[in-house]
Amino acid sequence: MAETPIKTIPWNGYVGAVSFTFDDAYANQVENLKPILDDLPDVHVTFFLTSMGNGLTQNAAGFAALAKAGNEIGNHTRTHAHLTGVGSDSELEDEIVKYANTIESTLAELGADVKVTSLATPFCENNDKIKSVIASRHFINRDCGWHGRNEWDVEPDWMSLQAKIWTRSGATVTEMLSALDTAAFIGNFEGANPWDVQVKGGSWLVVLNHGVTDDAGDDYAIDPSDIKKIFEHAVENKLWTAPFGTVGAYHRAHFVVDAATSTLTDDGFTVKWEIPNEHMPKSVPLRVKIDTKSIGENAVVEQGGKKLSPESDGSYIIEFMAKELKVRKSSSNDETIALPKSAFANQGYSKYTVFDMNGNCLGETNGWTIPANYPKGTYIIRAEAAGLKATTRKLIK
Ligand SMILES: [Zn+2]
User: Fold this and answer.
1) What is the distance in A from the centroid of ligand 1 to the CA of 252?
2) H or E element, residue 32
3) How far is the CA of 127 from the centre of ligand 1 (A)?
4) What are the sequence ranges of the domains in the chain?
5) What is the distance in A from the centroid of ligand 1 to the CA of 80?
6) How far apart are the CA of 52 and the centre of ligand 1, in A?
7) Among 40-44, 70-74, 361-365, where is mean pLDDT lowest?
8) pLDDT tens-digit map of 89-148
9) How much distance in Å is there from the Cα of 232 to the middle of ligand 1?
């Protein structure tokens, strides 16, 4: 029996990941970024909100709409405080903990169901005391500086993730595009100087942006056309372009799940793990490989009594927040349900493929049964053969 039967697939099956973060709750983020994001369904980003300059209050409707469209809303403190200079514990609590609640309730009034799980420190001022207050209400924090890349197998300081900073004077669009190539491991990195950071595979790049406007006088802002070009390059490079908290939760969860050990049961084994911080997102889906060799071909994978169906490559998408999974032999209760043979019989078909209702290919079948280890539900079977028109049938198990 494998000690650690679960292995998470890096970066959700993508070559690498990138999280674009936008600080300070500017109106120009809503005005100029929303139309770009609406055109790019594979790109979701993070907005770190603050009440500095009335940013949250004035732009709440816009950020609620961005949240509803699948973007993350994070915390950038109530007053954009110099946290290392905050004197009292209660003030620190107000800036960090209570303000996360303020963001949630403000956006809830506008119909956006937001759970704040990430913070970004203003001015990147941080220390151990601040980290402990952040960790009491958030599972991850973004600081700034350095190249902003995180490697799959190196566990970062979750209360101090680094980010590559955009300013007009400090970076060029070409440099940002090249950073996306590095995250996607595109290029030859063998000749790097030994004192440079060595690039050995796809990584997770975190980018810090502020305003989005073509006002060249705003050094921190980026032109809308430039950020669009950068987003499109991330998609071209097949990077997982997802919010900071989404990629961060996946990354953090993998260190836990991949180290979790199995316990034998009567008909298989269970794997249990602990949640490392209770303020992780409500759901953290993980794409994993599970070693079921000891159980055999018809191994059933379950979470909370519900069978999971394998993806077409044999991997599973498990729920990290469920804190356990079970692998067991299929039993007589996992009956195989058959389609009437007449549906496909004597028609010359030679290949039958099973799909779930979301169109995911689950594997092949003999044409009239669904394997016992597949969960109950509705399936589509596609029958085909050379020279014949492919046909499909619905099968309910
Ligand atoms: Zn800021």
Assistant:
1) 25
2) helix 27-38
3) 17
4) 11-252, 262-328, 341-396
5) 6
6) 9
7) 361-365
8) 999 999 999 999 999 999 999 999 999 999 999 999 999 999 999 999 999 999 998 889
9) 25
CATH class held by domain 11-252? alpha beta
Task: Using CA atoms of 68, 71, 77, 80 in order, give the dihedral in degrees to the nearest 10.
Answer: -110
User: What pLDDT, on a 0 to 100 scale, did the predictor assign at position 337?
Assistant: 64
Using CA atoms, how far apart are residues 71 and 117, in angstroms rounded to an integer? 13
The one-letter amino acid at 339: L
pLDDT at residue 187, as a whole number: 83
CA 63 to ligand 1 centroid distance, Å? 16
Q: Report residue 388's pLDDT band, with 50, 70 and 90 as the boundaries.
A: confident
Host H or E run for residue 133:
helix 128-135
Token pair listed for 230: 């950068």
Please identify which residue in the block is written with the tokens 């905050």. 86
Q: Which of 283, 276, 279 is nearest to 253 (CA)?
A: 276
pLDDT over threshold 90, residue 365: no
Q: Separation of 286 CA from ligand 1 center, angstroms? A: 31
